[in-house]
Automatic annotation (TrEMBL):
Keywords: Amino-acid biosynthesis, Cytoplasm, NADP, Oxidoreductase, Proline biosynthesis
Reported function: Catalyzes the reduction of 1-pyrroline-5-carboxylate (PCA) to L-proline.
Protein name: Pyrroline-5-carboxylate reductase
One Pfam entry name: F420_oxidored
Top-level EC class: oxidoreductase
Species: Egibacter rhizosphaerae
Main location, first listed in the record: cytoplasm
InterPro entries reported in the protein's UniProt record: 6-PGluconate_DH-like_C_sf, NAD(P)-bd_dom_sf, P5C_Rdtase_cat_N, P5CR-like_CS, P5CR_dimer, Pyrroline-COOH_reductase
GO annotations of cellular component type: cytoplasm
Subcellular location: Cytoplasm
Amino acid sequence: MDGQLAILGTGRMGEALLSGLLRVGWVKPHQVRCSVRGAERAQYLADTYGVDARTESASAAAEADVIVLAAKPQNLGALLDEVGPKMHSGQTVISVAAGVRTRRIEAATPEDVSVVRVMSNVPVQIDEAMSVLAPGKHAADADVEVAREILGAVGRVITLPEDQLDAVTAISGSGPAYLFLLAEALIDAGILFGISRDDATDLVAQTMVGAAHMLRDQGRHPVELRESVTSPGGVTIAAIRVLEEERVRAAFINAVEAAKRRGEELASG
Ligand SMILES: NC(=O)C1=CN([C@@H]2O[C@H](COP(=O)(O)OP(=O)(O)OC[C@H]3O[C@@H](n4cnc5c(N)ncnc54)[C@H](OP(=O)(O)O)[C@@H]3O)[C@@H](O)[C@H]2O)C=CC1
Ligand SMILES: O=C(O)[C@@H]1CCC=N1
């Protein structure tokens, strides 16, 4: 890109974006200003990536063409109070904060600042993120394109209306946590049967990778994929029966609904 990028709140998400964008060459270190609260963290970012890292955000925001907001939702209000008055015409703001509506950010920034809200997820660290963009009121195609380039550096990107973003957050934003929990449970089952933790982890991780590739790349329905594993009178159906008796499917749907509700609470609080 031409111009300057600011990443405000460079924690896990912000750092993953920073490292991905530098790796693909979308920006050079001298184009990037990062902000955090802690001086030690700022020093780490400067030493690791050769970027300008600061403990105040207002100057970084004022100097940038594109501003990524990557603080926790609970800290975003304070961050916006600090940087909003320093922003100016023509800037693009990309917020990755869960639950924070574009209209909340638009209210804290000058009239002609464009806002694009993003929900990404933690595989952003290995360039396998699923990111969903939702343009705000003033966002033009060019602003969405910038967001698409940034998130496209670290995974897949689609655009959806903002009213679907709390659901997206609960499914793909939080989704890796559900799959890690499932992995823990399957690894524990292996340990119960005397398989070493390392071997059980290998079994589970590669099984998840293989299954994920089939689901993503073969264009087949998950029911068909599951049926292809479930032999009549065989082993898998014995497990499926228990999962259905334990209402695992309903538990997942209820869990995602609870996550969506929490996103809505964060938005209104
Ligand atoms: N983790 C995940 O899987 C996902 C996270 N998200 C969203 O990404 C955002 C970031 O999450 P995550 O990276 O996990 O959080 P982290 O806590 O790792 O990072 C947040 C960063 O924000 C900094 N910060 C907080 N307040 C300020 C401020 N006023 N000025 C400057 N910096 C500030 C913190 O600085 P310091 O370290 O110095 O305290 C920290 O580095 C959240 O809004 C979350 O909703 C979205 C999808 C998935
Ligand atoms: O738990 C959270 O609030 C964030 C948003 C989605 C994933 N992690």
